[in-house]
Design brief:
The complex is a heterodimer of chains A (about 325) and B (about 260).
Chain A (H helix, E strand, L loop, with lengths): L3 E5 L2 E2 L2 E2 L1 H13 L5 E8 L2 H9 L5 E6 L8 H15 L3 E5 L2 H13 L3 E6 L1 E3 L6 E6 L4 E7 L4 E5 L16 E4 L9 E7 L13 E5 L10 H10 L2 E4 L1 H5 L20 E5 L5 H7 L4 E6 L12 E4 L2 H16 L1
Parallel strand pairs in A: 1-4, 1-6, 4-5, 5-12, 6-11, 7-11, 14-15, 14-16, 16-17, 17-18
Antiparallel strand pairs in A: 2-3, 8-9, 9-10
Helix pairs in contact in A: 3-4, 5-8
Chain B lengths: L1 E6 L1 E3 L7 E2 L2 E2 L6 E3 L1 H17 L2 E8 L4 H10 L3 E6 L7 H12 L6 E5 L10 H9 L3 E11 L2 E8 L2 E8 L2 E5 L11 H7 L4 E5 L7 H4 L3 E7 L8 E2 L4 H14 L5
Parallel strand pairs in B: 1-6, 1-8, 6-7, 7-13, 8-12, 9-12
Antiparallel strand pairs in B: 2-5, 3-4, 9-10, 10-11
Helix pairs in contact in B: 2-5, 3-4
The chains are: A alpha/beta (about 325), B alpha/beta (about 260).
Chain lengths: ~325, ~260
């Protein structure tokens, strides 16, 4: 019997997030022939987003358009997605392991009395059952998990599962669903955007990260300049956050974010085990540190022993030159 | 204010991980209160001090979790409850269901917990619990102000900050930056020994066994492949920088 996989879409600045395409592909990778792939788009601008998503192989797209769905509020989104669930009766629900995915999917899992496998980095559908790989201890180990029963609920970590290629010749059915106007116990009063125009850390392909070696909040400026040239994001070690040089939302490590970019440039970071846990799965690691004995050099592919305040501006110029 | 804190004991974040007989080895491992739960404990104590009431700690875990609970009692919490899971592997579904059963007759005003645990890292249990109890939640908070029947919270949403107003009872999960957890004082440690400490078995919660049957199961555990130390670049600084960019383009092929 065919199953239905429902993917919860997210957008950033009116465009579908890359991680939504990754979650859609994760659903396809877990599905068998004949299974149905559906997507849920909630918020504003759903028609445009549905058009954008159409080419990626969803069979059905459910949309719920309502001003209360922007910005994300767990109560409004859950009320909307519940309508979709009632209609689609999904055997599995997928989303990105993002601020929204981390918040909404456990609600859905509880509602469906379902198991959930969070923060999935790889899927193996070759055997008798679908196996999901996820990090534990912030990537110090990996476990393979499977579901003992359906429905499934899955969140996928950005940047790990490839986004699917556009599919031609398939036009999904778009199904508008009424917003149920629930009575609300929580209200978003304000959103202070600190990252507008910046690349989100969890999805960034390139991360320039600073540690205690940046010495002050101003010390992050050359790092930000390099990140801007590379189209990347700035991160930090716990040391830099504890010292008050930057916001905790930038922290990468076992207490903080776990990131897996293509390039991780660690500037003035010694490489404590708690930081290494958060970044050592990056594809290429570059370390810039004055101390040649710093543990970060033990995991770095390329290292420059030197003062970050000399190295980083030169490196930024060099990147700028070659990227022109 | 009737405050409950969901707590878990975890490996210290500085611990290395080893696998023995297909399980994570706990040989000589130092345990701590899950760092995010520690923020929750601190916040609960502060709210109790400002508004009155009591702080009850709830842990599902093995007997060794007693140490973490005693530490949090020494910080200033009033009571502790250890729901024993000896010999049972609870997944997030079952853990949330057990907490729901425990809290069913407790009428909490506030429930606080960590944003996620640094061992399993799934971050599901607290939010599942809010849903099961049919109360609102605000996840990943960096600030919390409680007033009569209401709370205002700041929430970290991938770096953006949301200001959320919510009616109580409600559940909150703590993010770094919420507060600076206190160290237990010596008098606190002495007092903690006399504070109420309850032990419950899963049986005593009256949940049918099939309800606790895991819906997800671990098939295998691996360590990530060790990273090899790479190349320290030599020469004049300009040359090293040029060499690095060249290697990124032509060897690693990432830019």
């Amino acid at each position: 019997m065919s199953r239905t996989f429902l993917v919860i879409a997210e957008n950033r600045g009116g465009k579908l997030r890359q991680v939504t395409l990754e979650a859609l592909n994760a659903a396809k990778m877990s599905a068998s022939e004949g299974d149905l792939i559906a997507a849920a788009i909630m918020g504003g601008n759903t028609r445009t987003l549905a058009a954008e998503l159409s080419g990626f192989g969803a069979d059905k797209i459910y949309t719920v358009e309502h001003p209360q769905l922007e910005p994300y509020n767990p109560e409004t989104w859950f009320a909307a997605v519940r309508q979709i669930i009632e209609s689609a009766k999904p055997d599995a629900v997928y989303a990105g392991h993002t601020a929204i995915g981390k918040d909404l999917l456990p609600m859905i899992a509880a509602y469906l009395k379902a198991g959930q496998i969070s923060d999935v980095v790889a899927i193996d559908n070759s055997g008798a059952e679908t196996v999901f790989v996820r990090p534990i201890y912030a990537g110090k180990a990996f476990e393979k998990k499977s579901f003992t029963r359906s429905p499934w609920v899955v969140t996928v970590r950005p940047n790990n599962i490839p986004a699917g290629e556009p599919v031609s010749g398939k036009t999904p059915e778009v199904i508008p669903v009424e917003y149920p106007n629930p009575s609300l116990r929580s209200v978003i009063k304000d959103v202070v955007s600190k990252t507008s125009g910046k690349v989100d850390l969890s999805e960034a392909k390139i991360i320039v990260s600073g540690g205690r070696g940046v010495k002050s909040a101003d010390g992050f400026k050359p790092l930000q300049e390099m990140a801007d040239v590379l189209g990347g994001a700035v991160g930090a070690s716990r040391g830099a956050c504890d010292a008050g040089y930057c916001d905790y939302s930038l922290q990468i490590g076992q207490t903080g974010k776990v990131v897996t970019p293509e390039i991780y440039i660690a500037c003035g970071i010694s490489g404590a085990i708690q930081h290494l846990a958060g970044m050592s799965q990056s594809r290429v690691i570059i370390a810039i540190n004055k101390d040649p004995e710093a543990p970060i050099f033990k995991v770095a592919d390329y290292g420059i022993v030197g003062d970050l305040f000399e190295v980083v501006p030169l490196l930024t110029d060099e990147f700028q030159r070659v990227l022109q | 204010m009737n405050i409950y804190v969901l707590m878990k004991q975890t490996f210290d974040t500085e611990e290395k991980i080893a696998i023995r007989d297909g399980e994570i080895s706990d040989d000589g491992v130092k345990y701590v209160i899950n760092p995010y739960d520690e923020y929750a404990v601190e916040e609960a104590i502060r709210i109790r001090d400002d508004h009155g009431g009591s702080v009850t700690l709830v842990t599902i875990g093995p007997e060794r979790s007693t140490d973490a609970l005693r530490t949090a009692l020494a910080m200033g919490a009033d009571e502790a409850v250890l729901i024993s899971d000896e010999g049972v592997q609870l997944d997030e579904y079952a853990a949330a269901r057990a907490l729901q059963a425990y809290l069913a007759d407790k009428a909490p005003d506030l429930i606080l917990g960590g944003n996620f645990s640094v061992d399993n890292g799934a971050g599901q249990v607290a939010i599942r619990l809010a849903q099961l109890l049919d109360i609102p939640h605000v996840g990943s908070i960096t600030k919390l102000e409680v007033s009569a029947g209401k709370a205002a919270a700041r929430r970290d949403a991938e770096g953006d900050e949301e200001i959320v107003e919510v009616t109580l009872p409600a559940l909150f999960t703590a993010q770094q930056g919420l507060n600076e957890p206190r160290y237990p004082s010596l008098p606190g440690i002495m007092k903690a020994k006399k504070k109420p400490f309850a032990r419950l078995s899963l049986d005593e919660l009256g949940i049918a066994a099939e309800e606790l049957a895991p819906k997800t199961v671990r098939k295998e555990l691996n360590l990530p492949p060790a990273r090899k130390a790479g190349r320290i670049l030599e020469g004049e600084l300009h040359d090293r920088v040029a060499q690095l960019v060249d290697l990124l383009r032509n060897e690693a092929k990432v830019i």
